[in-house]
Amino acid sequence: MLRYWKTVRVLLLAGWLLVLWWGGHWSAERFAAAAARWRPAPPAPFSLDELRHPARGCYLGVYMPFVPQEMRLLEALERRVGRGFTMISLYQAWGGRREQQFDPTPLNRILEHGAVPVLTWEPWVTDFEGHGLPPMPDRQFRNLQAIARGDYDFYLRRWARDARRWGRPLMIRLGHEMNATWYPWGERAYGNTAEDYVAMWRHVVNVFRQEGANNVLWIWSIAQRPFHGLYPGGMWVDWVGVTVLNFGTVPPGWRWRSFPELFRPFYRELVLLNKPIMIAEVGSAEEGGDKAAWVREAMLSLKTEFSAVRSFMWFNNAQDIYWPINWSLTSSPDVVQAFRRAAADPYFIAPPR
Known about the structure:
By secondary structure, the protein is an alpha/beta fold. The chain contains ten helices and nine strands. Strands 1-2-3-4-5-6-7-8 form an eight-stranded parallel beta barrel, surrounded by four helices.
C-alpha cells in the first residue's frame, strides 16, 4: 500500500511539473508573439502635419481585398499601373473578437510599403458580450445614443490607448455613409437621428483625445446623398470624404454617369467645410459606356475642376457585393492604360522610396 501511494505521489509530481513547464512554454510563446506584434513601427512616409494640411497635389490610394494581409497582390497591381499608391484602405468592424481590436501588424505592413493606412472603422455593436450591454437585438436600437453616452468606452479607450502606443499617423474613416440606409449607424436606422450621429462622432473623437491618441486623423465621409445636419464640426474633423461610384447601366433603369456629373453637387458643398477632401471610394462599371475614358476624365478633373480633393482612393474590387460589376482598375487593358497614363502626372503624389 505504501508503494502504491509513493507511485501516486511521483505521478502527481510529474504531472504538476509538466503543467508548469507547458504553462511556461505557452506563456513564452505568447510573450514572443506579443513582442513581435508590438515591435517598433516603421517610419511613416508623411508627417502628421503633411497629412492634416496637405498643401498641394493629390494622394492616390487604393482598396484591395486581402490587402494588407497579402501585399504581393498590391505589388502586382502597382507593377501593372506603373506607380505606387500612397494611401492603402482597409476596413474593421467594432466588436469583442480579437480581430476587432487594435492590431499594429497590418498597419506596419502598409508603412513598410511606403504608404499611409486609411482605416474605415465601422461602429457595429452586435459583436460585444457582457459589460452590462442590452441583449441583441435590443442593443441595436438607438445604438448611436448608447455610444455617445459612453456605453462602449471600455472598447474605445483600450483601442485609443493602443493607437497612441503605436504612434504613427493613422487616418480613421469613422461610421462612413451615415446619410444612407444600409448601415445601422445611419441617421434613420434603428431610431437614430442626425443629432445622435453628431453626438456619437464627437464622443469618439473626444475619447481618443483624452487618451492622447493625437496621431489619429478623422475622416467624415458621406454617401452620394444629401447630408444636412450630420457634420460634427471642424473641431472634430480633419478630412471630409465621399463615395463616388458609377454603376453604369447594371441596375435596371440606371444610366451611365461621368465622374464630374456624380461628384460636382457634393464638391460644391464639401469645399465649403474648408477641409481636405477625400474621394474615399471611387470606381466605375464597364457596362453602359467607356470606363477608360471615365478614368481619364475623373483624374484630369481633379487637377482642373476639383482642386480641393487631396486623396483619390480607387475601390479595386473585382466583384460588387450586390451587382455583377467589376470595379477594378484591371477590368480591361484599356482601363489599365488609362490609369497608368493619368497617374504619371506629377500632380499625383508618389510614395517616397
